[in-house]
Design goal:
Length: about 260
């Protein structure tokens, strides 16, 4: 495990924690809330499983995803920035320029990471608006669990290889996945933290605890690189959410018992 990999993994983990701490982006039209339904909670899981098995059957489909990401990621990032402020908009525009100019350099990779992370905040906010919170929490946990199974079983490897090698042209960046030196991360690895951040947008204290635990769990999981070259990076944030929400459910009854007041 090289120093370069350690630094890259730490950067990816901090980005995940920052997405949780960031919270949601208010960019969703109110009429969409009329579509609110529990079934939307299954979308992250269906997208993960669907892409994995689609690319196993047809690896050339990764090029289609690369083209979609090349157009969609900067657009979503610009939407997120426009809803945040002028400074954020200027930063995102600079990221677009750096990424397009030299997406293979370290600066280009960091800029691409920023664009992908920003795009995830918009999609996360959209899904939160149309999904009941309890159902969405269950969907997040299920997605991370399936991601763990896919990585452990080796089913994820062909899809990952197809996405890593896909590109529109050699000169254009690949925004369908994150690349930081020797480290690669899937889009879902950033989307799930952004989704958790949007889900907890109004719960500042809870969101900060989940962000802190996400970072701690992710860094601890990094030690597994000593024995494997693939990790399910969605698991730390889902585990952090479960721990904090579980603690919140246990503490109030415990306090009542100590105080002697009725539950």
């Amino acid at each position: 495990m090289s120093a370069e990999l350690i630094a890259a993994y730490a950067g990816g983990s901090m980005t995940q924690a920052a997405l949780v701490a960031r919270g949601g982006v208010r960019c969703v039209p109110k009429p969409l809330r009329a579509l609110r339904h529990p079934l939307f909670a299954a979308l992250p899981l269906l997208a993960l499983v669907g892409v994995v098995f689609w690319l196993r059957a047809s690896p050339d489909g990764a090029v289609t995803l690369a083209k979609l990401a090349l157009l969609g990621v900067p657009l979503l990032a610009l939407i997120a920035a426009a809803r945040t402020g002028r400074i954020a908009l200027a930063v995102v525009l600079a990221m677009v320029v750096v990424t397009l100019r030299d997406g293979h350099s370290l600066a280009g990779q960091i800029a691409a990471l920023g664009l992908i992370a920003a795009s995830c905040t918009v999609l996360g906010a959209l899904l939160v608006e149309v999904t009941p919170p309890r159902w969405l929490g269950a969907g997040i946990a299920a997605t991370a669990a399936v991601d763990l199974v896919l990585v452990a079983s080796g089913l994820l490897a062909p899809a990952t290889l197809a996405l890593d090698s896909a590109g529109v042209t050699e000169s254009l960046p690949q925004l369908q996945r994150v690349e930081l030196g020797p480290l690669t991360m899937g889009y879902a690895d950033l989307f799930l933290p952004a989704l958790v951040g949007a889900l907890l947008a109004t719960q500042v204290r809870t969101r900060r605890w989940v962000a802190l635990l996400t970072l701690c769990f992710a860094l601890a999981a990094g030690s597994l690189f000593l024995v494997t070259d693939r990790l399910p990076a969605t698991v730390p944030v889902a585990l952090a959410l479960l721990v904090v929400e579980g603690a919140g459910a246990i503490v109030p009854p415990w306090r009542h018992a100590v105080d002697g007041s009725p539950k």
